Amino acid sequence: MANVLVAYFSATGRTKAAATRLAAVSGADIYEIVPAEPYTEDDLNWRDFNSRSSVEMKKNPDFRPAIGSEKVADMDKYDTIFLLYPIWWYRCPTIVNSFVESYDMSGKTIVLYATSGSSGLGSSVEVLKGSAPGADIVEGSMLNKINSDDELKGLVEKYLC
To answer: What are phi and psi of 76, to 5 degrees?
Structure first.
């Protein structure tokens, strides 16, 4: 079996819960992408076009928030990365780009999974391709309505070889 890492960014805890379940059913290692400056509730107010998340996503999508957590130890050993995040403005948050750009991802398979109140993965694949040259970026699935571990395992089995 390939060496698998579940890497996730969670602003409110919802994505963390999905990542924890995904790591458990896949037998993968897990890593939390922690921003150097945590997001507050006001920062996450998508209805406020001047909130931090709105500015990062809409006004300055090339901005890369700093990651405060330690780097993944021995990233080279992972063949497959299940990358989880909440959908912000129809794509992955820019801190996910910060994470991906911190490593040489060439030759790795990066499978995208996300949580959202109402949208799909949007343009996440396209947005991340420029951040991970040489990686195979795959559209995984939305994890909003995954009720059983068997259902979740079914979503990842094809990548566990």
So the answer is: -60, -25
Q: Which of 2, 12, 150 is nearest to 87 (CA)?
A: 12
The backbone torsions φ and ψ at residue 43, rounded to the nearest 5 degrees and listed phi first, read -60, -30
Residue whose structure tokens are 């379940």: 21
pTM comes to: 0.90
pLDDT higher than threshold 90 for residue 57:
no
Dihedral angle computed from the Cα positions of residues 142, 133, 81 and 64, in that order, rounded to the nearest 10 degrees: -70
Instruction: Give the residue carrying structure tokens 């909440």.
Output: 86
pLDDT at 98: 95
User: Please, which residues bridge with residue 30 across strands?
Assistant: 6
pLDDT in tens, 94-108: 999 999 999 999 999
The structure tokens 């939390």 sit at 32
Using DSSP, state whether 126 is helix, strand or coil. helix
Q: What is the DSSP letter of 102?
A: T
| Element spanning 85, H or E | strand 80-86
